[in-house]
From TrEMBL:
Domain NFACT RNA-binding per the UniProt entry, residue ranges: 550-627
Protein name: NFACT RNA binding domain-containing protein
PANTHER family (UniProt xref): NUCLEAR EXPORT MEDIATOR FACTOR NEMF, RIBOSOME QUALITY CONTROL COMPLEX SUBUNIT NEMF
Compositional bias segments (type: Low complexity): 534-543
Superkingdom per UniProt: Bacteria
UniProt lineage: Bacteria, Bacillati, Bacillota, Clostridia, Eubacteriales
Signal peptide: none
InterPro entries: NFACT_RNA-bd (IPR008532), RQC_Subunit_NEMF (IPR051608)
A Pfam family this chain is assigned to: NFACT-R_1
Segments for region (Disordered): 488-515, 527-548
Length: 690
């Protein structure tokens, strides 16, 4: 929260009217910079305790009254104990803001250890990174929250037993309230107009007057119909100075009459600005007015706290997803290399066959070789004419790339093929080694292809999860997505594929029978069902999605369009909620949200093309991040392909992650991503059964 001098002045006046002559009942320090003073009001004042919250955080300072209760920490920090020692049960005389500066002085009278009344000043400086909380007695610092010595500030030391020096006033500036009329302001402006000819109007106002923020200076310029960035050299002195002086005088009258409207302006996601009036240079969507300054600060801090917590959690989850994607991509590269080394399994079988076809030649070659070292021998190639059909089928079954098939066929064009033979084995044993390599490589291909399939499914799932994270709107959405991410990590199908493959296909000792495999699988299902019952009706222990949870719109032809917010909603929307003749849409070969058009049993041929086009445009819009959406609004980007089919044609693979489905017999159309506002669609409550 950025608080300027004007806002600080009216804020302290507002607080002073509430807490004057009250007593300090309790002092609590919640964080390193956040203090709460519980104040007991006098008779005749509003009944009930008030709480004065003081936050001198360097990035978000604040001062306001609140009725909320705060839980005291078990152990009070040292500075909190120090304040309790001197200020406990003290009477607040008043709170002031000297010279419209960005600090407040809380005047307190408290009893010392001799029961004498001692005047103290608690100085609350809310100046960004220079914010501080200082207790003084007779203008001598007793202690302060942040100590500042001469190494950090040569003009103003903030240390115990040093005289307190107020923040220095800006030289050459005057208070706007010190002028009686617009004529005096115009004369004051014309004094330095020529010297500041290269300055802009906004900068000139800030150089001449105190307590004005850059946003207030912009408002004054716009009220005078002068663009803030206009150079003084381009303006005529008598006419322009009078117009500007009239705007300044009008602003001064508003301050004197106290006709202020506490307003919070959200200039960007990182900071909120407190203003005494609405600012015309910002749209109404970026500012909000309040009855009191305390209410304005509370609302701004809550929003800032939400934005901070939301942004931190979102960035953490995005980093986690990116790390997993990088990890999975690296695994895919490793698997691709393993497959590349196994593509020659057919050649191993051919070499084994050729060795058995040339047993006399091979045995004669190995007759005087007893070493285990390998020896090369050229044997006659009987596969020059054509490759047997069984080997052709195997190559097609294992999806050998065309370049690998061509490489194999080029080798088979030679009249002789070189085989490597071990000298300590005969022809039959050497052929068995090649057959063993053939079986091992074929099994490796089968296994690695399963791993790649699972890893690609994981990448698609994480891609959709990342889109959902970027489009999340609340902490509740992020919590659901975090639970999905944790479940994906604990139930990673690809990470357990190796163990499952070994358990079912490579059991050491006695091989598993079909009956034993069925019993093991039945036991796993029983344990999963028990776990699901403990957590509720579904394995994750969460309630099933309802229609009201989805993003919902009514098309121009009055058809309901539902859009899932996360993988769980996508799964429920596509496979549970959808009727068989509803129309389902998704980006083609890309991660994105699931979109459903509720046709109310209308035949697909009678569905209006406009409704289908609107649903496809929404599918493209909500399948992109907020940053990409802004690009869609600013530039005319190329269209994307959206697939659609009847929901009854959707299938889900056993064990597939939430939100991953496959479909056939679909149609496609090219659309451009468009927001609901661009399509002139209004959000509709998804009434109906849950």
């Amino acid at each position: 929260m950025v608080i300027d001098g004007m806002s600080m002045h009216f804020l302290t006046e507002e607080i002073n009217a509430e807490i004057q002559n009250s007593r300090i009942a309790k002092i609590v320090q919640l964080t390193d910079s956040l203090f709460v003073f519980t104040l007991r009001l006098r008779k005749g004042q509003n009944q009930g305790d008030k709480r004065l919250l003081i936050d001198v955080a360097k990035n978000n300072p604040a001062l306001y009254l609140t009725d909320n209760n705060f839980q005291s920490p078990a152990t009070a920090p040292n500075f909190c104990m120090f304040l309790r020692k001197y200020l406990a049960n003290g009477e607040i005389i008043n709170i002031t803001c000297p010279d419209f500066e960005r600090y407040a002085v809380l005047n307190i009278v408290a009893k010392n250890s001799y029961f004498d009344s001692v005047p103290y000043k608690l100085i609350i400086e809310l100046m960004g990174r220079y914010s501080n909380l200082i207790l003084t007695e007779n203008d001598i610092i007793k202690d302060c929250l942040y100590h500042v010595d001469s190494r950090h500030n040569s003009k103003r030391e903030l240390l115990p037993l040093r005289p307190y020096v107020a923040p220095p006033q800006q030289k050459g500036k005057r208070n706007l309230l010190s002028f009686r009329n617009a004529a005096e302001i115009a004369a004051y402006l014309e004094e330095d107009w020529a010297l500041n000819a290269t300055s802009t109007v906004k900068k000139f106002i800030l150089q001449k007057f105190t307590a004005l923020s850059p946003l207030s200076a912009e408002k004054i310029c716009l009220s005078a119909s002068l663009p803030p960035a206009t150079l003084l050299s381009t303006l005529s002195v008598p006419a322009s100075s009078r117009i500007l002086a009239a705007s300044l005088a009008e602003f001064s009258e508003i301050i004197k009459s106290k006709a202020v409207i506490p307003t919070v302006v959200q200039k960007n996601s990182a900071a909120n600005y407190l203003s005494i009036l609405p600012l015309p240079q910002f749209p109404q969507t970026e500012q909000k007015s309040f009855v009191t300054f305390s209410a304005a600060i509370i609302a701004a801090r809550q929003e800032a706290s939400f934005n901070s917590a939301f942004s931190q959690k979102q960035q953490y989850l995005l980093r986690t997803v990116d790390k997993l994607l990088d990890k999975f991509q690296q695994k895919l590269l490793t698997y691709a290399e393993e497959m590349r080394t196994s593509y020659d399994f057919v050649l191993d079988k051919i070499k084994g066959n050729l060795i058995l076809a040339a047993v006399p030649q091979v045995n004669a070659f190995l007759q005087h070789k007893f070493s285990a070292a390998t020896e090369a021998l050229n044997v006659c190639n009987y596969y020059q004419a054509a490759l047997p059909s069984d080997l052709n089928e195997e190559m097609l079954t294992f999806n050998l790339p065309e370049n690998e098939q061509l490489k194999l066929r080029d080798i088979l064009q030679e009249p002789e093929i070189t085989v490597l033979l071990r000298g300590d084995k005969n022809a039959q044993d050497n052929a068995k080694l090649y057959y063993k390599n053939y079986t091992r490589k074929k099994n490796r291909l089968l296994f690695v292809q399963k791993l790649i399939s699972g890893m690609q499914a994981n990448c698609r799932y994480l891609g959709e999860l990342k889109i959902n994270l970027l489009n999340a709107e609340s902490l509740a959405d992020l919590s659901i997505l975090q639970a999905e991410l944790q479940a994906a990590g604990s139930n990673d199908r690809s990470s357990n594929e190796k163990e499952n493959f070994k358990a079912e296909n490579n059991q050491p000792g006695k091989p598993q029978t079909h009956k034993r495999l069925l019993m093991a699988r039945k036991l796993k299902l029983t344990e999963a069902n028990k776990k699901g019952k403990q957590n509720g009706n579904n394995p994750n222990g969460n309630k099933l999605p309802r229609k009201n949870d989805f993003i919902s719109f009514s098309s121009s032809d009055n058809y309901r369009i539902l859009i899932g917010r996360n993988a769980k909603q996508n799964d429920y929307l596509s496979l549970k909620l959808a009727a068989s003749d509803d129309i389902w849409l998704h980006l083609q070969k890309a991660p994105g949200c699931h979109v459903l058009i509720l046709t109310n049993h209308c035949p697909e041929a009678e569905l209006p093309p406009r409704t289908l086009a609107e649903a496809a445009a929404l599918c493209a819009w909500y399948s992109r991040s907020e940053k990409e959406r802004r690009l869609f609004q600013q530039t005319n980007l190329e269209s994307v392909t959206v697939d659609y089919c009847q929901a009854g044609k959707l299938k889900k693979a056993p064990g597939a992650k939430a939100g991953l489905v496959y479909y056939n017999n679909y149609k496609s159309l090219r659309v451009q991503a468009q927001s609901p506002e661009m399509l002139k669609l209004t959000a509709a409550p998804a009434n109906g059964e849950d």
